[in-house]
Design goal:
about 350 residues, alpha/beta, Rossmann fold, Helicase, Ruva Protein, domain 3, 2 domains, 5-stranded parallel beta sheet, two-stranded antiparallel sheet, 14 helices, 13 strands, ChlI/MoxR_AAA_lid, AAA family ATPase, P-loop_NTPase, nucleotide-binding, CbbQ/NirQ/NorQ/GpvN
Length: about 350
C-alpha cells in the first residue's frame, strides 16, 4: 500500500513509535486535566484539541452558557500557552486587535514611532462572538490566521509560535451581527458545534460548580511540547486509500463534478484547503486514539466539522428545509460504500 509522507525529514520507525508513545501520554494527561472542569462535552473537547494538535484554528458555534469560553481558557492553561481574549463588538477597531504605532519623544526632543502590540500577539487568542465585529475588523484576523504575521504601518510583525485562534459564535442572535465571509470561514480548520449537555453531564455541572470551591486545572505540557506533537502529526504516514477517500469526499462536495445530489443542492463547495484540513485532522485523530496512521473512519468522523463551514446550499435546497450536514451525510455514505 502506498503512503503519502510530509516533506519534513522522516524519523526512523523506532523513533516515530517512541515519539508517538510520549505524545499519547501527554495527550492523555491533557484530556484528563480538561475533564476536571469541562463535563460531558467529549466530542467538543476532542475536536477543539484536534484543531490545535493539527496546528490550526477552530470556530466554536453554540448558544450562550455552554462553557465555550471556559473551554478555551482551560486549554490555554493546560497546554501551557500564553492566552488572551478579545470580546468582539460592533465598535471594535482593527488596531484594538493588532496594535498601533505611538509617537515617543526622548530627552532631546527627538520624536519617533514605536509599535505597541495588541492582544493578537499571543499563542492562543480567544475571539469571543467574532461575528459581532464589523467586516473591517474581522478581516484584520485574516492575515494573522493564514500567514502568522501582521502588517502595521508597512512593517511586518511576526506572531508568537504556536499561534491559534479559537473563535466563538452564537447561532441564535443575528441582530447586529456580520456573518463571517467565506474567505475567513475557510481559515478555520474545523467548525465545532457545541450542543446542550446530556442529563448526566448537566447533573454533574450542577453539583460541581455551585459549591464553595471549584476544580482548578494546571499546565501539563509546554508550548514546545505541543509543537513537537504538531510536528509528529505531520510526519505520520497516510495510506493511498485514505488519500483517495479525502479527495473523493472533497471533490464530490463541489457542484459540477458529476455528483447529481451535489449539483442539485450545493451552490458552492470546499476548496483544496478542506482536503488539507482533512489530512491533518485525520492524522491527529489517529494519534488521539492511539494509532500511528489514520483510517477512512477518521475521514468519515471529521467530514462534517471540516466541510460544513466551507459549503453553501442553493436557495431551492434551503427552501426544502435541507441543511449542509444532510448533504455531507449523503456524501459520507458514498465514501463508506466505496
Amino acid at each position: 500500500m502506498g503512503v503519502i509522507a510530509s516533506t519534513e525529514p522522516l524519523l526512523d520507525e523506532k523513533a516515530v513509535i517512541a515519539a508517538a508513545e510520549k505524545a499519547l501520554e501527554e495527550i492523555a494527561v491533557v484530556r484528563q486535566e480538561v475533564g476536571k472542569v469541562i463535563f460531558g462535552q467529549e466530542s467538543v473537547v476532542e475536536r477543539t484539541l484536534l484543531a490545535i494538535l493539527s496546528g490550526g484554528h477552530a470556530l466554536l458555534v453554540g448558544v450562550p452558557g455552554l462553557a465555550k469560553t471556559k473551554l478555551v481558557t482551560t486549554l490555554g492553561i493546560v497546554l501551557g500557552l500564553d492566552a488572551s481574549r478579545v470580546q468582539f463588538t460592533p465598535d471594535l477597531m482593527p488596531s484594538d486587535i493588532l496594535g498601533s504605532e505611538v509617537m515617543d519623544q526622548d530627552e532631546t526632543g527627538r520624536r519617533s514611532f514605536r509599535f505597541v502590540s495588541g492582544p493578537i500577539f499571543t499563542q492562543l487568542l480567544m475571539a469571543d462572538e467574532i461575528n459581532r465585529a464589523s467586516p473591517r475588523t474581522q478581516s484584520a484576523l485574516l492575515q494573522a490566521m493564514q500567514e502568522y504575521h501582521v502588517t502595521v504601518a508597512g512593517q511586518r510583525n511576526d506572531l508568537p509560535r504556536p499561534f491559534h485562534v479559537l473563535a466563538t459564535q452564537n447561532p441564535l442572535e443575528q441582530e447586529g451581527t456580520y456573518p463571517l465571509p467565506e474567505a475567513q470561514l475557510d481559515r478555520f480548520l474545523l467548525q465545532v458545534d457545541v450542543d446542550y449537555p446530556s442529563l448526566a453531564a448537566e447533573r454533574q455541572i450542577l453539583l460541581e460548580t455551585t459549591g464553595t470551591g471549584e476544580s482548578e486545572v494546571r499546565g501539563v505540557i509546554t508550548a514546545r511540547q505541543l509543537q513537537e506533537i504538531q510536528q509528529l502529526i505531520r510526519q505520520m504516514p497516510v495510506s493511498d486509500s485514505v488519500v483517495d477517500a479525502i479527495l473523493t469526499l472533497v471533490r464530490s462536495a463541489r457542484p459540477g463534478q458529476g455528483h447529481a445530489e451535489t449539483d442539485r443542492h450545493v451552490a458552492w463547495g470546499p476548496g483544496p484547503r478542506a482536503g488539507q484540513a482533512l489530512m491533518l485532522c485525520a492524522r491527529a485523530r489517529a494519534l488521539f486514539d492511539g494509532r500511528l496512521a489514520p483510517s477512512i473512519d477518521d475521514v468519515v468522523a471529521l467530514a462534517e466539522p471540516v466541510l460544513q463551514h466551507r459549503m453553501a446550499l442553493t436557495f431551492a435546497a434551503r427552501a426544502e428545509g435541507m441543511a449542509v450536514r444532510d448533504v455531507i451525510g449523503g456524501l459520507v455514505k458514498t465514501i463508506r460504500a466505496s
